[in-house]
Amino acid sequence: MARTISELMSSPARTVGPDTTLRAASRIMRDNNVGDVVVTKEDGSLMGILADRDIVVRCLAAGGDPDAMTARTACSEHVATVPPQCRVSEAVDMMRSKAVRRLPVVDKDDIVGIISIGDLAQAVDEHSALADISSAHANR
């Protein structure tokens, strides 16, 4: 039987509200050893995803102030998602076709987790360089 995303996803996904500053979001990423947070609307539904790279490119490199800019202003709003029962091969295909590294896992309207390209690399080819990097301890 094919493995499903629910077996591999990180849960819960780390979330922030749209008015969270980029500095606060980056501290959540650091403290949880993750490269992204899911941005949620007031009702808890998905608004977007904010990656560490988004903070660098959309704020810091542009001369922005991470204490003034918010998740709303830097997140990617067009987000591909997968359901928990999605097969690993389908998630790999989606990441490839959408050119994304992370997929929020959504059950109905609830964000139940997140799956990264590193998670999938470990599941598909545990001896790959990406799997090794993804399983290594964080540099601090």
Outline of this structure?
The protein is built from seven helices and five strands.
Q: If you consult CATH, what is the topology? A: CBS-domain
In the predicted model, the low-confidence regions spanning at least 5 consecutive residues are: 130-134
Task: Profile the largest sheet.
Answer: 3 strands, mixed
Q: SS-based structural class?
A: alpha+beta
CATH superfamily, please?
CBS-domain
Strand order of the largest sheet: 1-2-3
CATH architecture: Roll
- In total, how many beta strands? 5
Taken from the alpha-carbon principal axes, the silhouette is globular
Kindly report the average pLDDT value. 89
Q: For the record, give the distance between the C-alpha atoms at the N and C termini, rounded to a whole number.
A: 39 Å
Q: How many structurally independent domains?
A: 1
- Percent of residues in beta strands? 15-25%
